[in-house]
Amino acid sequence: MNPILSATQSTYAGVCLSIGCLRRTVVPMIDLGAIDVLVLGAGNAGLSAALVARQHGKRVVVLEAAPKHMRGGNSRHTRNCRCMHAEPTAILTESYPEDEYFADLMRVTGGETNEELARLVIRQSVHCPEFMGRYGVRFQPSLSGTLQLSRTNAFYLGGGKALVNEFSAAAERAGIAIVYDAVVDGIVLDGDCFKSVAATIAGVPASVSAKVLVAASGGFEANFGWLEEAWGPIAGNFLCRGTPYNTGKVLKSLLACGVQRIGDPTQCHAVAIDARAPKFDGGIVTRLDCVSLGIVVNKHAHRFYDEGEDFWPKRYAIWGRLVAQQPDQIGYSVIDAKAIGAFMPSVFPAFRADTIGELATQVGLPADALAATVSAFNDAVRPGRFDHTILDDCGTEGLAPNKTHWARRIDTPPFFAYPLRPGITFTYLGVGVDATARILMADGLPSQNMFAAGEIMAGNVLGKGYLAGTGMTIGSVFGRLAGEGAGRHGRH
Amino acid sequence: MAVIDPQPAASLADEGARQMTICNACRYCEGYCAVFPAMERRLIFDRHDMGYLANLCHACGECYFACQFAPPHEFAVNIPQVLAQVRTETYRDFAWPAVIAAAFNRNAVGTALTLALCIAGAMLAAAGFSGVGILTLTAPDGDFFKVVPHAVMAGTFGFVGLFVLAALVVGGVKAWRSLGETAASALRPAAWGEAIADALTLKYLSGDGDGCATTFLRRSQARRYAHHLTFYGFLLCFASTIAGTLYHYGFGWHAPYGLFSLPVVLGTLGGIGLVIGPPLLAWERRRADAALFDRGHDRLADALIVLLFLSGLTGLGLLVLRGTAAMAVMLLLHLAVVMALFLTIPYGKFVHPLYRLLALAKYALERRRPPAHTLGGD
Fold first, then answer.
1. Residue B148 is assigned to a structural domain of this protein
2. DSSP A314
């Protein structure tokens, strides 16, 4: 079915799309009718904003760049949101007070955060599960055995695609039109006032105007041209873990129109993932967490960083950048039989051989160099009591760099190797917002009728680093704020 | 470099393992049902593991709709479908004797109906030779045994029943061994209690109260209730037969029994369940997203649904017509359908309660054991 047609079926009388001539003539006309609130992006942030604005009686249209089966941006790859709470709930254990949450945020960002907005997100995060639940999102009980984040993070049942499914269905029930295959190419402003967007809807150019804009269209991690502008040619070797539709067109257009710019284009959430992952949309299953159980070498078979420095998630968060700094942006995690069963399995089978030399040949590493690296590492391992659950006393001596914990000789065949590449999850370059989610102009003053939510403004809170589950929390809190602001727009 | 093949693997076992490996690296669905916690206890998936997971799956559909790697994603993950395919394979693998299973798998509905007709024909012919004159016989007193002597009825059904029981025991033992369990682990009452409760309440079709979502986001308890009507309907009919047998041999009370006697009340209630439940199940299946199912498994399900429905219908018909001239024909039809149902029990979908119960018992046992792996990460 034509995505536009399907979008209009659930919409209200005032909004219609005339596509009768779409197939037959060369001058198509797309009429979305009078729109109060135009939301760009049908992920967690955009749909939260749309639902709240609709509750205020506004006529809301959501433009989603992806086709229906790929809808929801990177929300479809998420799993939980980090929530402050004073006491145990059905889905969260113990308590997670504001100050602890803020301290965690300060630690990962190195202080690069807007404290006012950060504390706003934290305080409002207590309402996230209730808000999401109102629209059909279900959560799983906190007691699940394999989760380490059951105290701080609420896990929605089935993950992000299930959440997007529920939000989309709730939006359609509420009379919000979600138009798929609708790519926004540019934003038209008059000073600090939003006028319209230029879009391509199902391949047809269209101009869509509205009284209020909510930009919730994500970052630019799927735009390799832009990534190369920021990182140089090495970005060509990165992989994009999420949606291929986050091309940053809306962000770029807003920044070009005089909106305040926040953050550094090289700041992003990047992890080391299996190098065999697809260029886009490999999602969670391409992650690898066996770095700490062996050694990691570059293409010359040299070690380059302390594999035993710290636990997941810090380890997880830094290895993307570490691999990005190596020649050809590739690394190889090498482990032996002792490590099997001690890490989350990857979706790709490990390279496997009975000797280090054979393993090197299989993965294309210089065999002598890898043998020498492993041998030097094995000789440097000092005795200790291996315990993967603590920062144990198994380290090396005399290596540069040393492995400070969990160092065990790599001597038990078969040997295994996984190739690693930097996988970008999301970017932090964004637009400035105030505490009502209103977009700020370059002069620091709020725009008249533009709001932002989600990844496109996450850089206000996350200057660098990442704290698991805060992306969805920022999207949820600022989505609701943007929906409130858009819903109250024009009322005095 | 080796890249995961987006195309389904060559063999069903490899394809199941391929999808399960993707699933096991994601685990977002672990809150839905028992399949995922069971999966998380494993790192590799051989055909025994796949058979276990396949028989744990109740095909509720939630994980398919929630999967970010479902087609058209290149990873092409569809767990309910691949597990339905594996489930069908386990029915064949555990069936005894294998020859009958093979015939039944080729055309389940056809085989079942042909069987029923053949039995009915044979009974008619036998009755004709013996001079009973069935088509003209009137039995105003509704005495079935004037049509088919009690000894014949009890003898044939007793023989078939024993055969079916033997086949099920063989299948059950094969399944239990395939699950990696032993005779000793079969004697753990707590685990069995849990498994039986999960089976009798259809816990994994309840969606924790929200129902299952075989149609996208339209959750309901319809399938669960339809299954309850069918399952408990069948149990009531079975209980009715037991009651009749007790009356006959225990108390020397001979049929026909009164409308408010235990065998008739149980049989009537059960018959109503069998007339309503199976068509509802068929309707639910047609309404559900076709992507969730496997054609081969559907054929087995259809055969069971048809036979259960016809058993109920002919049984109720017999009750209504037992005082008329049509009783004899109706009785033979009913006996033929029930005989066909019994004969096909070990070879079709009817085995699913057995293998599912064994899988649930394995799950309950496994949960009481420490996991083999403690993995880092989230």
1. yes
2. H
Claim to verify: residue A70 and residue A31 sit in the same structural domain: yes
Query: DSSP code of B260?
Result: T
Instruction: State the Cα–Cα distance between residues B83 and B352, nearest whole angstrom.
Output: 13
Joined tokens for residue B9: 């693997």
> In angstroms, rounded to a whole number, what is the distance separating the alpha carbons of residues B7 and A398?
48
Task: Identify the burial level of B106 via C-beta atoms within 10 angstroms of its C-beta, where 0-12 means exposed, 13-18 middle and 19 or more buried.
Answer: exposed
Residue B40: DSSP 8-state: H
Question: Is B165 part of any domain?
Answer: yes
B9 touches A at CB < 8 Å: no
> In which domain, by residue range, is A329 found?
272-423
A-B Cβ pairs (cutoff 8 Å, strict): 119
Residue B374 has a pLDDT of: 62
With contacts defined as CB-CB under 8 Å, which chain A residues touch B72?
69
* C-alpha–C-alpha distance, residues A202 and A2, integer Å: 8
Token digits of residue A290: 């066996």
What tokens were used for B170?
């063989």
Nearest residue to B208 via CA among B193, B223, B219, B192: B219
Per the structure, the complete domain to which residue B263 belongs is given by: 97-187+205-353
A406 & A439 share domain = no
Structural domain count, chain A: 2
CA distance A490 to chain B (A): 36
d(CA A329, CA A324): 5
Which of A358-362, B96-100, B338-342, B344-348 shows the lowest mean pLDDT across its residues?
A: B96-100
| CATH at residue B106 | 1.20.950
Three-state secondary structure call for residue A178: strand
**Mutate: best of B30, B32, B63, B378, partner A, most A CBs <10 A:** B378
Q: Please tell me the distance from the alpha carbon of residue B356 to that of residue B349, in angstroms, as a whole number.
A: 11
* Segment A334-338 mean pLDDT: 96
Distance in Å, alpha carbon of A492 to nearest chain B alpha carbon:
39
Q: Does B28 touch chain A (CB under 8 A)?
A: yes
Does residue B364 surpass a pLDDT of 50? yes
ipTM of this complex prediction, to 2 decimal places: 0.89
- Contact assessment for residue B21 and residue A345, using Cβ atoms and an 8 Å cutoff: yes
Q: Which residues of A touch B37 (CB under 8 A)?
A: 145
Let me know how long chain B is: 378
